[in-house]
Write a structure and sequence with these properties.
The protein has about 270 residues and is of the alpha/beta class. It folds into two domains: about 140 residues, Periplasmic binding protein-like II (D-Maltodextrin-Binding Protein, domain 2, 3-Layer(aba) Sandwich), CATH 3.40.190.10; about 90 residues, D-Maltodextrin-Binding Protein, domain 2 (3-Layer(aba) Sandwich), CATH 3.40.190. It comes from Cellvibrio fontiphilus.
C-alpha cells in the first residue's frame, strides 16, 4: 500500500463529498465504455488504484488519522488496492485519467460538483463508511444560522470548493474562501468572521486540535445531510468485485465495533 500526498489540502468532500445516496448516473458513451474495457483487460490482476482525497484531519500522507487507520485495517484484510493521496480536484482528475476509484466521495458528490469532469462515465459506490454533512457554524453560545439568507450582511468564511452560485446566490455577505478547516475555525474563534461553512466531523476535529470551544450549528440547515463517504469506482467487473469484497469487510468492522473505534467519537456511523 502506497500513501502519497502531492501537497496539503483542506477538506472535502469533500466537497467531495461527500450528498444523498441517489444514483444519478450518467450514461457511458460507446468510446468511453470500450476504453474502460480495454484498460480492464490490460490491468489483469493489478491492484485497484484509488485516488485518495486529502483531508486535513481524516486522510493524510503518513498520517494516523481516521481514514488512514481504516485504509491500513482494510489492507490487513488482504484487499488488493493501492491508494495515493491528492488534493480534491487532482484526485477527481486522476479518477478520469487512470485511477479505478476515489475515496472518500459519493455518487451524488461527483455528479453535483464534478459533472463536467465525470461526464460520460458510469460509477458504482461502496456502502458508506460514515455520514458527512456541510453546516453553517457559529460561535458557541451565539445565535445559530437556520437559513442561508440569515448570512446577509455578515462576514463568512467558506470552504474553498464551495459553490456560491448554488448556495449563496443573492446573499449579501462578505465571503472569505479558505482551504483549511483549522483556519476557518480559528477565524471564527477570534471573531474575524461571524460564521463559517464547513463539514462535520471536520470542524469538530479542528476545534479539538486547536483547543477551542466546539462551534455550534442549527440542525435545520444542512447541505449533504446524510451523505455517506464511500469508495466510488468506475463501473466494470473488476471494480464490482472489489466493491463487493470491500462491503463485506466494512460490515465486519462495523459489527465488531472496530469501525466506531477507528473513526472516533465525532463520526456518525452508517447503521
Amino acid at each position: 500500500m502506497n500513501l502519497k500526498q502531492l501537497y496539503k489540502s483542506g477538506f472535502f468532500l469533500a466537497g467531495v463529498l461527500l450528498a444523498a445516496t441517489a444514483v444519478a448516473q450518467t450514461t457511458v458513451d460507446a468510446s468511453t465504455e470500450s476504453n474502460l474495457e480495454a484498460n480492464l483487460d490490460a490491468q489483469g490482476d493489478a491492484p485497484i488504484k484509488i485516488a485518495g482525497v486529502a483531508l486535513e484531519y481524516r486522510l493524510r500522507e503518513n498520517g494516523s488519522d481516521q481514514y488512514n487507520k481504516l485504509v491500513e485495517k482494510l489492507a490487513e484484510k488482504k484487499l488488493d488496492f493501492n491508494l495515493v493521496i491528492f488534493p480534491l480536484t487532482r484526485a477527481v482528475r486522476n479518477l478520469t485519467e487512470g485511477a479505478d476509484c476515489i475515496f472518500p466521495s459519493s455518487l451524488n458528490s461527483l455528479g453535483t460538483h464534478f459533472a463536467e469532469q465525470t461526464k460520460g462515465y458510469e460509477f458504482i459506490a461502496s456502502n458508506p463508511v460514515d455520514y458527512i454533512s456541510m453546516r453553517v457554524f457559529t460561535r458557541q453560545g451565539e445565535k445559530t444560522i437556520a437559513a442561508f439568507n440569515e448570512l446577509n450582511n455578515k462576514k463568512v468564511a467558506i470552504w474553498l470548493g464551495f459553490d456560491r452560485n448554488i448556495y449563496l446566490q443573492g446573499i449579501n455577505a462578505t465571503v472569505d474562501e479558505v482551504a483549511s478547516e483549522e483556519v476557518r475555525v480559528n477565524m471564527l474563534t477570534k471573531k474575524r468572521v461571524d460564521a463559517i461553512v464547513g463539514f462535520t466531523p471536520d470542524v469538530f476535529l479542528a476545534a479539538q486540535k486547536l483547543g477551542v470551544a466546539i462551534p455550534e450549528y442549527n440542525k435545520s440547515l444542512s447541505v449533504f445531510e446524510g451523505e455517506g463517504a464511500s469508495v466510488v469506482c468506475h463501473k466494470n467487473a473488476k471494480n464490482s468485485q472489489f466493491i463487493e469484497q470491500l462491503n463485506t469487510q466494512l460490515e465486519m468492522l462495523r459489527e465488531s465495533g472496530e469501525l466506531a473505534s477507528i473513526l472516533g467519537p465525532y463520526a456518525t456511523l452508517v447503521k
